[in-house]
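call fold(seq) -> tokens
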Amino acid sequence: MDRPALVDLLIRHLAAGSLETEHLLPAISALLPDEPTSLSKAGLYESLQEQEGEAFERLRQELERDLVKAALELNALAHQRQPIPEERRRDLEGFPLQVPLSWRSQADGLAALQRAVSLL
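ret:
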């Protein structure tokens, strides 16, 4: 059996829940090419936009949360003038990584608004 067919078979067992995930995932990973075309969560999110159904919607929501978290971490690192970890670079592939230092999060804006209101 060739690798793609074996990966397909293992994924089907994973989806069916017929074998333990802890054993299947390492086997699937071992059969995948060393250099995937892209591990970008942003790319995966974009690719899932055309898919319909609750399972895809839940996955998109999880990816969206991860991307927001990654963007906030990127913002914090930029403000601290720290390098961006490679994992975050991959997650945000396709997004601009040079964040203007004036960019603020909603929490920053809320804190400033609360300070202004307290002065009134």
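Residues 3 and 33 are 10 Å apart (CA to CA).
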